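Final report, Chapter 2: Outcomes

The project's central promise was a pipeline that accepts a single protein chain and returns its three-dimensional structure in a standardized token representation, suitable for archiving and comparison. That pipeline is now operational. To close this chapter, we reproduce one record exactly as it appears in the project archive, with the input sequence first and the structure output second.
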Amino acid sequence: MTKHMSSLQNFNILNFQEKLLTWYYANKRDLPWRENQDPYKVWVSEIMLQQTKVDTVIPYFHNFIEKFPTVYALAAADEQDVLKAWEGLGYYSRARNLQHAVREVVEIYDGQVPDNPKELEGLKGIGSYTKGAILSIAFNQPEPAVDGNVMRVFSRVLNIDDDIALAKTKKLFEAIIYEVISHEDPSSFNQAIMDLGATICTPKSPACLICPVQEHCLGFELGIEQQLPIKSKAKKNKKIPYAVLLIRNAQNEIAIEQRPDDGLLANLWQFPMVPMQDISPELIENWFYANYGMKIKLGEKKSDLKHVFSHLTWELEIYSANFNQDIREEGKLKFVTEEELSSYPFPVSHIKMKDFV
């Protein structure tokens, strides 16, 4: 860390800030959470933007703020309504953690999002990046908000070849941002770096010729900007096969079930899934009777679907099936009409299956 920090001795911080902020004031993206510095809206936007592109987030943000305009509205909401508003964004633990933390803000801080780093980071789901984003953007405090965009920009600007997948490298970049962030306008500085990384200093084919801080960029000067940042490969993605059953009862209603209240996709709804690691399609009916106590008749295969999570991939075979009784609830299963399906929050993979219902 000392080696990279010493490289700042020859770095013209004030000129870098001036060039960056002048560009940002003239070119900043028109985003709905930038209309004011409301800490709650900044917080919601930053949670939504984790692992999700800006264009995808914008309509979700509008809808979410319309449904839950204040911390009080979100704190009082039913979790199923919150998950429904989040449906399709993925990484649903973000929504659950956000609501949990907002309830803490209402109970402990009288509905005021704290502007103290320790108090903020003590809230569920707020890590160092989200803490820095809220403190800088909403409260104009000179705090670093280091994500992949920021590490990419500064690994190129300062020619840092440390592995950005390592926690210690993120700490390094946080230390660097503490030194170079504007104290006059930290809110704009951090958002400027985000915009620069999103629009100019992109992962592939960065637009160096129109970059406002090109003269400060060692990566560009050395012609190695496309080799940076360095990131080690993630662990191999595990593939898990499932059969997904679109089961209709005698009243032509469809079976759904709620996932457990912790773990992957907690509390969302899905069509019943049969793990296929050790069984063949011929044994699905027997497996289902053994695990659900219901005798179903397997129908035709409708389609194949693959859904990739960060750490695993679901390989899904979709089948129709019939249950020749008119029971509306049976154990874990609930039978609903096609119209009623839309009121339940589903994960993305199962939303796609509605086309085959």
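Archive annotation: The domain at 238-356 is CATH 3.90.79.10 (Nucleoside Triphosphate Pyrophosphohydrolase).
This record, like all others produced under the grant, will remain available to the consortium after the project formally closes.
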